[in-house]
User: What shape does this take?
Amino acid sequence: MFNATLKQLLYSELQENFKETILARFWFILEPVLITLVYVFVFATILGSRDTGIAGVNYPEFLVIGLWPWLAISRSIGGSVGLVKQKSSLIKKLNIRSELFLYARTIAQFLIYTATFFIVLLVLSQLGANIYFAGLLVVLPVFLLLWVFTNGIALIISSLAVFIDDFKVIVPLFLTLAFFLMPIIWPAHLLPEHLSFLIDYNPLAVMLDYLRAALLQGQLLPQRGVLYFIPLSLLLYVLGRLLYRRLSRYFLDVV
Assistant: This one.
């Protein structure tokens, strides 16, 4: 029953993202291609090349490889804020476990951005970027770990947002700040030494660096920080799940 319900909710989420129109079906492929072309045009043609800190790597591919995982994370977390209240009528009517809606949403977002990530890499390679396709071996495991990590955060935020309306403002602001404070649009080597804690204590920065090292340098062996990310993600997920289950018994009293 659990799997059948989750599959149906996931199907509904994907339908919502790609409505039954001709444009929507093609947009699944066109959107990442167009975004990639815009980045290449703006940063390579207009602004010129930037020092990425990686020999032989231009700014467009550096940016895109950091951006796509972040899109999956931020849109999953952002979409979890008011999810329980949005789906409250279905939860009451069909007696569906509320966390299944959250899992369906995060799975849908990660499926979309993982698939489009491969498309983006193909486009970059066709435009002359030196992509090590052996690095594709680490993409799925990394995205899976990021999904587990994201679910932990989403479970915490989704459960607390039922009781704290300010989360609708706080979470988007936090996600915006996090985007600019992580090495997504800027290389880590440009960070002043007194601000190095933004990288040293940021587990997501470690994973983005690993993706770039694998896809842009062919370095497949994970560093120690990547190995630490595995238990951290699992711990965060367990804590998020425990908190969600403890608070979920009061959801229907609030919504």
Observations:
- The mean pLDDT is 85.
- DSSP finds twelve helices and no strands in the chain.
- The two ends are 25 Å apart (CA to CA).
